[in-house]
């Protein structure tokens, strides 16, 4: 399509119900850098810098429905991340293996699902992918 070219994901938004509790989890446990929201916003939202992407936490009265939806945070050392979450009393959920990848899930205080992932080799669909599309 002429004039339209998607470059990357810009940000991900998730619902939260307690800004202070979520700030502690995302800033203090995950170590994300909080950045100022746009001054034109007249609603509660926390923004975090993820390099060339952002995470937006939208304060709402009710949490999102618990589901398989998630976003993934790439790390350099998944075994170390497992130890870190265990040391902080945060349960991890192991999941379906992907060739040349190590990963697991954690949940934030509002039960938003977060994948922690390390690619041991770049994903190669011709070698690791299914024979057919679903």
Describe the structure.
The protein has three helices and seven strands; from the N terminus they run βαββββαββα. By secondary structure, the chain is an alpha/beta fold. It folds into two domains: 1-60, Roll (2,3-Dihydroxybiphenyl 1,2-Dioxygenase, domain 1); 70-128, 2,3-Dihydroxybiphenyl 1,2-Dioxygenase, domain 1. The strands form two sheets. It has a four-stranded mixed beta sheet, covered by helices on one side. Strands 5-7-6 form a three-stranded mixed beta sheet, with helices on one face.
Which key features would you list for this structure?
134 residues, alpha/beta, 2,3-Dihydroxybiphenyl 1,2-Dioxygenase, domain 1, 3-stranded mixed beta sheet, 2 domains, 29% strand
The CA-CA distance between the termini, in Å, is 25 Å
Alpha carbon gyration radius: 17 Å
Count of discrete structural domains = 2
CATH architecture term of the largest domain? Roll
Provide the β-strand percentage band: 25-35%
* SSE string, helices as H and strands as E: EHEEEEHEEH
Structural class given helices, strands, pairing?
A: alpha/beta
The CATH class assignment of the largest domain is Alpha Beta
Percent of residues in helices comes to 10-25%
The name CATH uses for the topology of the largest domain is 2,3-Dihydroxybiphenyl 1,2-Dioxygenase, domain 1
Count of DSSP H/I helices: 3
The CATH homologous superfamily name of the largest domain equals 2,3-Dihydroxybiphenyl 1,2-Dioxygenase, domain 1
Number of strands: 7
> How are strands sequenced across the largest beta sheet?
1-4-3-2
Biggest sheet overview: 4 strands, mixed
Stretches where pLDDT is under 50 for at least 5 consecutive residues are none
Mean pLDDT comes to 93
């Amino acid at each position: 399509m002429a004039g339209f070219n998607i470059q990357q994901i810009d940000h991900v938004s998730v619902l939260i119900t307690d800004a202070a509790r979520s700030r502690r989890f995302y800033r203090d446990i995950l170590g994300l850098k909080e950045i100022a929201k746009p001054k034109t916003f007249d609603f509660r939202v926390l923004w975090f810098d993820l390099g060339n992407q952002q995470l937006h936490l939208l304060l709402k009265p009710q949490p999102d429905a618990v589901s398989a939806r998630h976003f993934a945070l790439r790390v350099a050392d998944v075994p170390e991340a497992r130890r870190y979450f265990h040391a902080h009393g945060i349960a991890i959920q192991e999941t379906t293996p992907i060739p040349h990848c190590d990963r697991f899930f954690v949940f934030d205080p509002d039960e938003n699902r977060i994948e922690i992932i390390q690619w041991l080799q770049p994903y190669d669909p011709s070698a690791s992918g299914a024979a057919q599309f679903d």
